[in-house]
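Narrative summary of target 7.
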Amino acid sequence: MFTAGAAALLAALGLVSPPVAGAATASTPDTFSETAQQQIAALQAVKAGRTATESKVDSKLLVAEKGLGKQLNALQSGVSATGTVVVDIRASKVSPDLIAGLTKAGAGIRAVSDRYASVRAEIPVDKVSEIAARGDVKRVEQADQAMTARELATPSTTPVKTETKQQKADRIAGELQKALGAKAQRSAAAAAPLVSEGDRAHNADIARQQFGVTGVGVKACALSDGVDSLAASQAKGELPPNVDVIPGQEGDGDEGTAMLEIIHDLAPRAALGFASAFNSDASFADNIRKLRFESHCDVIVDDVIYFKESPFQDWIIAQAVNDVTADGALYFSSAGNEGNVASGTAAHWEGDFVDSGKSVGKFAGTAHNFAGAAGNQIYEPISDASSAGVPVTLHWSDPLGASANDYDLYLLNSAGAVVSFSQDVQTGTQDPYERVNTPTFGGTGLRLAIVKFSGQNRYLSLSALRGRFSDSADGLKAYNTPGVTVGHSAARDAFSVAAAPAAKAFGRALEPGDPANPAGPYPGSFSGATKAERFSSDGPRRVFYEANGTPITPGNVSSTGGEVRNKPEITAADGVQTSVSGFNPFFGTSAAAPHAAAIAALVLSGNPGLPPAEVREALINTAIDIEKPGPDNFTGAGVILADKVLAYTGASPQPLAVAKQPTVTPADGGSALDPGDTAKVTLPVTNDGDGTAVSTSVVLTSPTPGVTVAPRAKSYGTISPGQTGVNDFTITVPTSQQLGVPVVLNARVTFAGAHSPTTSTFSLPVGTPSPVTQDFAYTGAPVAIPDNSPVGASVTIPVSGVGRASKVTFSVDGTACSTDPTSTTVGLNHSYVGDLVGTLTAPSGAKATVFQRNGGSGKNLCQVVFADSAATAFSTVTAANAPFTGSWRPTQALTGNLAGAAVDGTWTFAVVDAAGGDVGSIRSVALHINGFAQPPAAGAPSNVRGYTNNGPVHPL
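Modeled conformation, tokenized:
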């Protein structure tokens, strides 16, 4: 229902009922139809009449809240059937008061970024202005959307039957069970993983053999939609067992899994990590930083573009890329699949605003003339064949957060009616950005118009992402210019990666009548004859402002100003096989970027410490020129070959000698290390590298007061790759050492190699573990777990009388187990356990992840014990195991991570639901802790491994 004021406005303009199609006056290339002028006038009336609070609201949200959207012919509102809309709330600060206020207004919190003061939430549309009225809210925007750079085999105009959440869970569970069964039988299928054809096409296979480098010593991490099938890929042997996924950032989808498989194929011994890029734009930026500064990733790759990312200034995502590259990380990003002028597949125009002299609406504004000096055309036509579900963005050359020049964007149909619009206010504190979406299944004769509502002429960028600008049937000419690559892919020190097929050609014409798509060289390798994918995005990228808003060319923000960045820089393989369902083959610059990142990982593996500038030089200078002679704005320097870049950098196999967990044998024969004991410490050193570790030695010290280590240093000699050497040291523990306070040992391993030295720290428990387990349970009321919210739910468990812990286990209890998601007798009821991440926090602040998106659609945890000694990891469960009971190994060790300090105090168990559609509650959980007892007089040696050697090093 719309307001009385809104109704009066519509009645005055004749828009209470949709205009009669037959009565509409048709548009011409240089005029708006009568219908369009009436509709734009109505929309501009809303804009002109905004209050201060309404000026903080996205224009489409405001029209929807006022009830106008459904009254304007063919207009899209973006409001769900239940009257809610997903928004990004940009605030001065994210505070508990803001979160509480949003929750009270009926918001479901989806993502929170403290650093960027941004909250993504699903809110009732009638609460938009109430939220915007808060003093700590700067702006309420329709949620910034994103897409990956995967090219789909099915055109967007074809309706696709999507999986339900349950269907996806069943499919993934079936794949995991099949993989586990094959692994248990040691079948041929389990022993022969699929390998990307890009491994061969990039000569990465022969490069590993020739130079002896495999990715050792490097951590390569990806950001994409999600890693739903991670456990299945690990069980199939396609990925290693220890992929580091940031808890709560597992995402939804499997493009991340496919990207990780590509990296692992080319750099099989590189460590891997992942975080989702899809929770929100601010969350994406946060996760880029986390992967570098918390997970210590050396190479980072993504395949995502957020529509709000500015072409003219580094926004928050590009700023995060700048932060990590300044810290030494190498960053790779897909150039995009938005087409290019050379192939005739583009839908991008940029240039200076040209006043057409055509006013619109009843209030203000003149339309842009796309024809420029060649005539007067106020429309940009969209190809019918590429018009379905296309996001269209408009940016102009004002600084972010400081635009005082107001431009608007309108999408019209062939009858001259407004289909969608974006007309936010720009009065000096807003972003220079507008966006519309074409209808889900496209249209006939769709066209775009840009209107300067007020202000100065600016340089414009108009992109229909994955669409195409083509001449229309009614005489409109399409105008395209190069430069659709935007956002963080165009950051100065990022690598923007174009795509070329490794094997078979992309399987469909991008539009009917298009030329054939190119095929790749597999089983050969890339050469000068290679052709890039016709959908790959082109550059260059003109940028007018530094990240902080400082003009690069003060006073000139036109087509002759700013800085031109040559993007993309390099080209890599797509159209490759992975084991991930739906990604065989895997096309798009989404597949190309991880190939390039993996080759960079090989470079760093064979050249530890090589400066990023030298890696860039090597990749660009050794690239094989393709397409036009010399560097171009479509493929950059050309396609990269691993053998050439490794030869250029002088890569060689590097040793990586690392101290491993020691074993302790007390001299008195006791079973534990006690205060006053002297003990033998057997310290193994393993060469995890590709090269031989020579002149290996260890310096072993302890920062624990009163502890002595003798000798301080020992030689381990030469250790071959994959081999282990051991030596014995003697430690003495002071009699004053408190029970449960560990002895800390620091082992520094030196050897001839760039990775030298490596350091490891070990904690040796002091005291005999008590056989008595003390139980501490949560006794409060059930706590509801909010659906799809990072806020989560938590309960506290008080612990007292233990002191130091020798063992920590955790249980989710219950009196009667079932799969009824509403059960009140289970320990944790939930209708989709695979949505949940459970975390245990000790009084010291130490954390351990108990479970992490495991169990698929299985329901309820009941009488389940998480113990470090359990035989089977909870990560292997499927819905068939529900209700989840018995003993399971947690995601992260509980004792090792949580027992480093006194355990008395308040513990917290928190659960976050990371996906939508399911609910539940924490009901009954408990801690089970063993402390320390006085040591017995004698006993068997503790923790003695199968190898203990005296004297000089003995290879194993």
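The first helix runs from residue 4 to 13.
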